[in-house]
Fold these 2 entries.
Entry 1:
Amino acid sequence: MTSVKAMEKSFYKDVLTGLRSVPKRLEPKYLYDYRGSELFEEITKTPEYYPTRTEMRILKKELNSISDYIGDEAALIEFGSGSSEKIKFLLHHLKGIKEYVAIDISESFLLQSVEKLKKEHQHLYVHTVCADYTVPFSLPSLKAKKKVLFFPGSTIGNFDKQERKTFLNRMSTLLTKGDGFIIGVDLKKDEKLLHSAYNDAKQVTRAFNLNLLQRMNRELLANFMVENFEHKAFYNHEEGRIEMHIESLKEQLVTIGEEEISFQKGETIHTESSYKFSVQEFQNLAKEANFIPKKVWTDEENLFSVHYLEVKA
Ligand SMILES: C[S@@+](CC[C@H](N)C(=O)[O-])C[C@H]1O[C@@H](n2cnc3c(N)ncnc32)[C@H](O)[C@@H]1O
């Protein structure tokens, strides 16, 4: 498992590498320090951010069917558990979940969320794993015989082509016949709806994105003047993804520890992509990674999809 110290070290290294590359980019996982996790929770409550609401609606509507797929005695293993809100809902209604593994990179937010969950579900076996799921790590040994992986929130959309292939392949090696994988996938849709979801009126997404500059100031002794940068999010039609960037409003020099990074006016740091898929596109990806798509649930407006996958024998 990646230790927290090792993660801190790689943050510095990755920031320097990312900001020295052309174009500048940082991995989306770095958006999630404690403040970033809090802001993400706020984003999910904005009227423009349809994914969380819609995914929850699907889980509520399809509860019985989801319960049948999960079965009577399963361990649910959640990647990127955040506030664990979705699992709280499932735990409340599905008696077949006997054990829960919460995995997240945002350590103090993870510990706080799991503490709350444990109080509400005292008979559940709960494991807390602070890890970076983009690199292999070991899972705790489980009591339940059946494993069901849970990857909601369309976080799969944050990976580029190669990364999502690697991730899905790794997920399939964690499972054996009869296990399952529940994954939330955001669907292609009207670009205006997408645009406003990442440019909300209260500017919470802006604060979430710019928090990355503050995080580098706090943790890496950087001197970003946040007022000299702006949030920028748009749909890249060709790539089929929302891109989130931080744009430099002027030519400037920033110090990170002992290193200097220069910015041109208008130059951006690409901080997150959020790919959108059709049901068929996602199922094809799943099949390439040795999965059999068993079931897909969607909402009435076809905004979001939740898939149940099993591995090929
Ligand atoms: C888009 S949020 C989704 C949160 C929640 N699962 C939901 O559906 O609302 C992504 C979550 O994954 C976590 N995360 C992002 N990158 C990660 C990584 N590389 N390893 C582990 N957790 C990560 C974040 O801290 C955050 O809680």
Entry 2:
Amino acid sequence: MIAVYLVLLLGPALIPLPARTDFIWNNAVRFAQFAFWGVWWPFVLLSTALVGRFWCGILCPEGALSEWASERGAGRAIPAWLKWPGWPTVAFIMTTIYGQLTSVYQYPAPAVVVLGGSTLAAIAIGARYGKAKRVWCRFLCPVSGVFGLLAKIAPLHFKVDGPAWHRAQPRTGTKPPVAVNCAPLVPIKTMRGAGGCHMCGRCSGYRGAIRLAWRSPNEEIVAVGGETANGWETFLITAVLMGMATGALQWSGSALYVTLKAQIAIWCLNAGVSWPLDASLPWWMLTNYPGDRMTLVDGAALLIFIAGAGLLACVTCLPALSAGAILLGGWSRRRFHHLAQALIPVAAAGLFCGLLSLTVTQLRMDGVRIPMIDEVRSLLVGTAGFWSLYLVYSIAGRYGPSRFARLGVSAAISVPIVATCGVWALFFLG
Ligand code: SF4
């Protein structure tokens, strides 16, 4: 995987950009572009929702390099600043915005900066902190927060049998079993969810208490979510996945973006400042290629559009979640964050189907059309919306209110769910 990754990442950056007549199957740049953004990115997300974080534990070249460096590195203790739980969310927002500003999906050089920079940072962190651990993956990787959320709905996980663990307690004088090296630092004995587990399988069978098992995809969100959900996850689900990421995937086809850009241009001209309308920056700051250039006005409009999408998602989701928490017996932060977990299916489906646009567009450019793909994507997001609604109803049931109150909570939280489904359906079909 490391070899494939390096070839696909560095190779295209060393050859000329493709011409309009080049295809995925006869041009290395187009092929790498399709492999990274048309296949890898959307389908790794899908696989995480289906079988957990197998990608992270078995296939990810970045994680493997980080652990390899950690085996040979300084092995220092992990400092407190590095354990700040907001890093994955902040890193995801930054890479999403930077990727859009530099057109990472279209050009190989910004892909080298984003992916290559992340890989170098993973190696550096591995070489400095932890011994044979994946400190980068656990605390800093920009996609670990999103993968952690998606793994919660995976029907496959490593199940820990508490009583069996205790029964296997070694008797005094006997040799204890060799400890498992859980590279992403999951507290195996008390593990109750799949969010942090990389599915590497190293602990499988340990003390006869851990095994790969099926479960209901609702189980972790409904039964465990109340204890593990936190503010960063709520922010990631609502403001980032349902807001900023949606904006980042939709801006290029949005009439609102064009209006916003025109409005900024008018403000500049009214203020007697015309240079931002034509000024550009180097490619590694703002898209700048022959025949494809973003001006400062384009960049500013893009930033405002993405931030506005995040704000709109907050305005839609947070009051609805608050109302739901209150209806369950008075305001409670725990209930608020627990209810937010119910939005994971609809947020994840929007992200996956939105990213499929990259796959669909690249194939369309080469004359390959997938029939009914837009209808199928709309249907998928709609189905995920119903799933989210069912989760809201189930979570409400755990706090024991009447059926009437549960329906009230579902009605309140249906607002952001319907809004998300509507925004995506409009994007796919409109
Ligand atoms: S060692 Fe076990 S708990 Fe840790 S990542 Fe691997 S499978 Fe998950």
